[in-house]
Inverse folding.
């Protein structure tokens, strides 16, 4: 009995020592465990960034891809250090919570993936997309589609629209765009994370929609660009506000944010009027509380949270965006975000000097 | 002393189950309360609207109740022609032979396959066939989901029915044979009447399984929130709407989803109860 006790104690001591070893830091503060939750859209980017970030200060970041809505709910319940969200909080949502700061972390877009035999390059305009998803354009050889795509032969087949069955930031960005370009869409369906699409079929998540499109001839669906780029799905070029036909690329997505951005970075950049802008582009944000002292968090944890955000805004982290099929933030957005980070406090005093 | 400890442990273990069950029901009812209060219980059951427009949210469970009942009923219809012959093969015709035990093992094996794998098979194999046969342009829908569900519930229906068929007393059958009955007559005049309620209850339990199936249905039903107007059109079941939308749902929508969960729970519990009662009756015979 005594022997067992002794060996158990040695084991406990050994574990304690090992875990202490894991906590050793290179920086001036102790390694922290940060937790966040929210959007799945930036997950592949965050995975790489968090991994790299942990090399610097041994901070461990756990992020749960539970959807933007879930992330914001967790932040409201004050059980996470940050929330990831594909849509910024509305004024009404902001009013329900303690003051928060939005920090854009990278950019992405929504692309129109399609499955048409022998069609290599499909061009679409906002109004046509709205009419397709509203069920008003029913056939691929509709005269408006043909007029925009004179070089290709479109089949006389019914269009099968594919949309998201789950609530999603991707749907929000997509319908936000349609609301801006089509008065019909605005009146009948509006923008939201879930929208009642009248025709076609739905699938869960980007992989679900992409899978259905890949497997279904004559279908068209909207998919997050990061997913479409990585999977090499055929996607359409889209006419922007200036009338340019733009292919979604890291450059054309970043271009969408090259115009004016409000100081708190809460803005929709769909249907951007900037030159060369891909019109269905978006920021994705991390949202943190302005006052970091909540739920018994230590000051070091707050510092670590800001270190993480500063790292994400750094050139090093932004360079990773295109490697994992996102687009980097334009300079203006980074500048504003660094300024906003300085307003974050702990017990009323600014954390960053 | 020892006996006392055992008794306490057993008592605690036995107590935990009702507490867990009660807790689940309590949580479902309290969280679903908002939706029932806002829309009215009957209105929630019979409304077919599922509209997210902020400020004018309307949620009703009818499309999903219809979707669940349609897929379950169709699955049951598709499953009978396969499960009943298997049950007769194993329980009567080839009772106790090697081939029967192989067949029943294979059938039981079907029950062990995770539902996601059925879903994948349905999505990548069955769906293209449905499209190729021009049954529906998008391939997904009530029919596709029901076909796969049918395969999933065959083992439940078949192995339990086989047990009840085996239980039919030999004296009865021998009596019938001695009166000159053929095998087919024995089955229709003796085996089915005696094992009937048992076979019925095994199908009830299979239905219980089909009602709550989530993953497979979500992958194949097409996930549109409207009442399906034919068996080839897309729809949504109670389980699949919850699986699809709980992540981003809050407030009233979350409460509505939980209310749907509660209704599903009640339907499943009622059906299982009927099955249990029928099994008890079958044993008495």
């Amino acid at each position: 009995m005594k022997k067992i006790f002794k060996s158990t104690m040695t084991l406990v001591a050994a574990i304690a020592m090992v875990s202490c070893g894991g906590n050793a830091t290179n920086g001036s503060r102790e390694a922290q465990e940060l937790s966040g939750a929210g959007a799945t859209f930036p997950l592949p980017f965050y995975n790489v960034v968090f991994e790299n970030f942990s090399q610097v200060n041994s901070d461990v970041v756990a992020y749960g891809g539970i959807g933007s809505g879930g992330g914001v709910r967790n932040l409201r319940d004050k059980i996470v250090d940050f929330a990831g969200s594909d849509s910024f909080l509305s004024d009404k949502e902001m009013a329900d919570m303690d003051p928060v700061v939005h920090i854009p972390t990278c950019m992405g877009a929504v692309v129109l993936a399609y499955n048409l035999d022998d069609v290599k390059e499909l061009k679409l305009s906002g109004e046509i997309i709205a009419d397709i998803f509203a069920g008003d354009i029913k056939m691929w050889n509709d005269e408006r589609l043909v007029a925009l795509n004179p070089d290709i032969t479109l089949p006389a087949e019914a269009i099968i629209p594919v949309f998201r069955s789950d609530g999603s930031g991707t749907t929000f960005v997509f319908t936000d765009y349609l609301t801006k370009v089509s008065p019909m869409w605005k009146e009948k369906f509006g923008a939201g994370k879930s929208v009642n699409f009248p025709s076609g079929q739905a699938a869960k998540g980007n992989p679900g929609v992409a899978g259905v499109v890949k497997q279904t001839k004559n279908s068209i669906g909207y998919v997050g660009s990061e997913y479409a780029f990585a999977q090499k799905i055929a996607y359409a070029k889209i006419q922007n506000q200036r009338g340019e036909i733009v292919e979604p690329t890291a450059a054309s997505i970043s271009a969408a944010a090259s115009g004016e951005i409000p100081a708190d970075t809460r803005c929709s950049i769909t249907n951007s009027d900037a030159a060369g802008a891909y019109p269905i582009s978006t920021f994705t944000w991390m949202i943190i509380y302005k006052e970091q002292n909540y739920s018994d968090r230590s000051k070091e944890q707050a510092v670590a949270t800001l270190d993480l955000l500063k790292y994400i805004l750094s050139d090093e982290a932004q360079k990773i965006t295109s490697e994992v099929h996102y687009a980097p933030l334009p300079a203006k957005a980074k500048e504003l975000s660094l300024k906003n980070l300085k307003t974050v406090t702990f017990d009323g005093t600014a954390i960053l000097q | 002393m020892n006996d006392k400890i055992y008794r306490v442990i057993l008592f605690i273990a036995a107590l935990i189950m009702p507490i867990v069950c009660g807790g689940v029901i309590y949580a479902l009812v309290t969280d679903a309360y908002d939706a029932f209060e806002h829309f009215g219980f009957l209105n929630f059951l019979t409304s077919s609207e599922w509209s997210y427009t902020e400020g004018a949210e309307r949620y009703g469970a009818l499309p999903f109740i219809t979707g669940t009942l349609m897929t379950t009923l169709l699955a049951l219809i598709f499953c009978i022609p396969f499960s009943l012959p298997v049950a007769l093969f194993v329980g009567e015709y080839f009772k106790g032979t090697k081939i029967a035990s192989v067949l029943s093992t294979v059938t039981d094996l079907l029950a062990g396959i995770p539902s996601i794998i059925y879903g994948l098979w349905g999505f990548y194999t069955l769906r293209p066939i449905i499209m190729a046969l021009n049954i529906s342009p998008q391939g997904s829908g009530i029919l596709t989901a029901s076909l796969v569900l049918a395969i999933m519930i065959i083992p439940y229906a078949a192995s339990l029915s086989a047990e009840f068929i085996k239980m039919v007393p030999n004296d009865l059958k021998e009596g019938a044979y001695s009166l000159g009955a053929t095998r087919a007559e024995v089955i229709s005049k003796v085996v089915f009447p005696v094992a009937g309620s048992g076979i019925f209850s095994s199908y009830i339990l299979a239905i219980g399984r089909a009602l709550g199936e989530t993953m497979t249905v979500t992958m194949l039903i097409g996930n549109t929130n409207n009442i399906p107007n034919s068996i080839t059109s897309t729809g949504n079941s109670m389980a699949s709407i919850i699986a699809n939308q709980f992540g981003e749902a809050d407030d009233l929508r979350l409460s509505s989803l939980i209310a749907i969960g509660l209704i599903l729970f009640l339907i499943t519990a009622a059906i299982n109860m009927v099955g249990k009662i029928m099994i008890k009756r079958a044993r008495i015979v």
Summary: The interface with chain B takes residues 66-70, 73, 158, 160, 165-168, 190, 192-197, 200-204, 208, 211-212, 215-219 of chain A (CB under 8 Å). The two ends of chain A are 58 Å apart (CA to CA).
